[in-house]
Design brief:
With 192 residues, the chain is mainly beta. The chain has a single domain, classed as Porin. It is built from 2 helices and 8 strands, in the order αββββαββββ. It has an 8-stranded antiparallel barrel with strand order 1-2-3-4-5-6-7-8. The longest helix has 17 residues. The radius of gyration is 20 Å and the shape is elongated.
Length: 192
């Protein structure tokens, strides 16, 4: 499965790198840190995200991404040989996929330093669970992460220079704040 996902990511990157961006978006590396709120956890958890946007025609970008979040929780368990108590476990989730974004700069008549977008991300979540020593009960979590990763996004980015900016990405899954590094000279590209 990992080889298949790696093959898909390489093919997607190869395809995207050959697309000629016509709108001045894309060629941007995004490094984000924030909070995720997986509904099955019941509380916010720290999250990290990395993506690279490739420009597509008509104000669209496509960004392969990888993220990670981890949390600790407890399971109350015991049996005839083990006293009942809370046993802890740590779950780590790594979502991998693609994010398709549409930029609303023309509609909002945004200045050259601003980007506003809406997006949809799709992918898979890989997860691992590590249990506390001494726990011999059922290791199936009833409220578990789905292997399918789907999120809606609304975001804004402000470029402090032609190459570096800050972004805020509000999402149905993970909200991040971070740094954007643009590898395309924004000053020489017509944005509309």
């Amino acid at each position: 499965m990992k080889k298949l996902i790696l093959l898909i990511a390489i093919c997607l990157s190869s395809f995207c790198s050959r697309v000629i961006a016509q709108d001045g978006f894309g060629n941007t590396l995004n490094l984000g840190v924030g909070v995720g709120y997986p509904g099955y956890v019941g509380h916010a958890v720290p999250a990290f995200n990395l993506s690279y946007e490739f420009g597509l025609p008509h104000n669209f970008t496509l960004a392969p991404f990888v993220g990670i979040y981890s949390y600790q929780n407890n399971m109350y368990w015991g049996d005839a040989y083990t006293p009942y108590r809370n046993y802890s476990y740590t779950e780590t989730v790594v979502p991998v996929g693609g994010k398709l974004a549409y930029y609303f700069n023309q509609l909002f008549q945004a200045g050259p330093r601003w980007d506003f977008y809406g997006a949809l991300s799709l992918g898979f979540s890989f997860r691992t669970v590590v249990w506390e020593n001494g726990y011999y009960g059922d290791r199936t979590l009833t409220n578990d992460a789905s292997p399918m990763y789907v999120n809606l996004h609304a975001g804004a980015r402000y470029y402090m220079t032609d190459r570096a900016g800050l972004f805020l990405d509000l999402s149905t899954g993970t909200t991040t704040f971070g740094l954007s590094l643009n590898f395309r000279n924004r000053g020489t590209v017509s944005r509309y």
